[in-house]
């Protein structure tokens, strides 16, 4: 029994020879369910526009269409992923993937729409950015999205110099002020010098509905389980 079927071409796009998508740093491509139909879609950040190809029931993708004119090289000067990462996550808990972009002076959100496009961007928090906290690049200070407290909304998890910071997603699609939740998995706390050598990911390892930290270190892989925070949502999350 094989776990995966033989590969097949799913779409003639989003590649170096099909559309000029020459590298991830300039033209990142992510996956998320933009329209809430239960299938992941391709979200590509091109030179001028964000393109979406909706996932089909046969495992292919529909032709790409323009979904937004922001978060790109020409649409806001998002010149590279390392400086200005863009992630996907369900910020407001409506079952659709939203764009979360870490800009020069804050974090911006564009909410996913039922037609597969994105609403205009708005600032969601003054943090986790180059000029707001010194988050100079993704490789040194990665920022991920996941639901760490189990409320159905994506939260920001940032790996800084002294530890890991979390900003919980709010019902109005913004983020709460960041708080340090664990003094580990960071540059000065454990020697996690860069994402390329020591990646840190988020996922629900134990199936309790909350995202955990999984860090790939020199001597093995480490997990910090998300705890039930009780009354205060930022007490000992990990």
* E-strand count: 15
- Termini separation comes to 38 Å
Question: Which consecutive residue ranges, at least 5 long each, have pLDDT under 50?
Answer: 230-235
Residue fraction in strands? 25-35%
Rounded mean pLDDT score: 95
**Shape field:** globular
Structural class: mainly beta
The profile of the biggest β sheet is: 4 strands, antiparallel
Features:
four-stranded antiparallel beta sheet, 238 residues
In short:
By secondary structure, the protein is an all-beta fold.
Annotate the secondary structure layout.
Layout: E1 29-32, E2 41-45, E3 50-53, E4 65-68, E5 86-89, E6 98-102, E7 107-110, E8 122-125, E9 143-146, E10 155-159, E11 164-167, E12 179-182, E13 200-203, E14 212-216, E15 221-224
Protein architecture, described:
- The chain is mainly β.
- It has a domain at 78-224.
- The chain is built from no helices and 15 strands.
- The chain has strands at residues 29-32, 41-45, 50-53, 65-68, 86-89, 98-102, 107-110, 122-125, 143-146, 155-159, 164-167, 179-182, 200-203, 212-216, 221-224.
- Strands 1-2-3-4 form a four-stranded antiparallel β-sheet, with no helix packed on it. The chain has a four-stranded antiparallel β-sheet with strand order 5-6-7-8, with no helix packed on it.
- Strand 9 (143-146) and strand 10 (155-159) form a beta hairpin.
- It starts with 28 loop residues before the first strand and ends in a 14-residue tail after the last strand.
- Mean pLDDT is 95; it is low at 230-235.
